[in-house]
């Protein structure tokens, strides 16, 4: 029976802290179980590997991180690591190459966004699945997996570009990679979604613990929201 190895992030953690663990049940259930008084905000699912060898996969991933740098494990014997989600995903992909049934799926706002292969991420992919309700007719239905994460590369926004925060444009951030990381005015580096939380706190605005903020809806480039730039490109 298949199980899951997951990468979880948390808005209350540093941006280079992740939890990498395993579960025999769907990860959305496991992440809700971890939402307790020990952490101030709920976990966000970043990526999931599904495989029958999930015990082996988790051990291999933890082992790879410990080999690269034993100090990346925040506490000995625990599943928290001082590594960015992007680097953790790269390690997932290395591991997946050695496991014949491994499938990696990326998440945004705790929902799968693409059926990624083990070497590169796709913007979208059509997946054919048997429809249980129509097995007798041997019919299939087609599910179109939603688009991949919004990235600066996708939007043609260069490293070094300045973004402004839509709720108060005096708050700015500088793009520091071609994915989704920025540097705020105080020097803090964060993902776009985390930067929303930090900007809201700076403005004294309420942060809703259960809300997963989409950075593209809050940050502007040359006066335009990032989600609008994406829509324009795709149209």
What characteristics describe this protein?
235 residues; alpha+beta; 6-stranded antiparallel sheet; 6 helices; 14 strands
Mean of residue pLDDT values: 80
> How are helices and strands ordered from N to C?
EEHEHEHEEEEHEEEEHEEH
What is the end-to-end distance?
42 Å
Poorly predicted sequence stretches spanning 5 or more consecutive residues: 115-147
Proportion of strand residues = 25-35%
Q: Which oligomerization state do the chains in this entry correspond to?
A: single chain
Share in helix: 25-40%
What Rg do the Cα atoms give?
Answer: 19 Å
Number of domains: 2
Number of strands: 14
What spatial order of strands do you see in the largest sheet?
4-2-1-3-5-6
**Structure class:** alpha+beta
Task: Specify the biggest β-sheet.
Answer: 6 strands, antiparallel
Overall, the morphology is globular
> How many DSSP H or I helices?
6
């Amino acid at each position: 029976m298949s199980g899951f190895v997951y990468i979880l992030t948390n808005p209350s953690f540093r941006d280079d802290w992740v939890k990498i663990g395993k579960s025999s049940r769907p990860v959305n259930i496991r992440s809700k179980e971890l939402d307790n008084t020990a952490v101030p905000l709920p976990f966000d699912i970043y990526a999931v590997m599904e495989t029958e060898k999930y015990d082996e996969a988790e051990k291999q991933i933890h082992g790879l991180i410990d080999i690269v740098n034993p100090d990346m494990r925040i506490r000995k014997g625990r599943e928290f690591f001082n590594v960015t989600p992007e680097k953790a995903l790269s390690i997932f992909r290395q591991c997946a190459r050695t496991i014949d049934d491994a499938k990696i799926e990326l998440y945004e706002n705790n929902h799968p966004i693409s059926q990624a292969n083990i070497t590169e991420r796709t913007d979208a992919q059509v997946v054919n699945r048997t429809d249980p309700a129509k097995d007798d007719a041997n019919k299939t239905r087609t599910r179109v997996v939603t688009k991949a994460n919004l990235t600066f590369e996708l939007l043609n926004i260069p490293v070094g570009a300045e973004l402004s925060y839509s709720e108060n444009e005096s708050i700015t951030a500088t793009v520091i990679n071609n994915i989704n990381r920025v540097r705020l005015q105080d020097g803090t580096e964060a993902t776009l979604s985390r930067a929303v939380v930090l900007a809201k706190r700076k403005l004294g605005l309420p942060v809703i613990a259960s809300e997963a903020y989409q950075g593209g809806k809050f940050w502007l480039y040359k006066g335009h929201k990032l989600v609008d730039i994406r829509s324009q490109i795709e149209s």
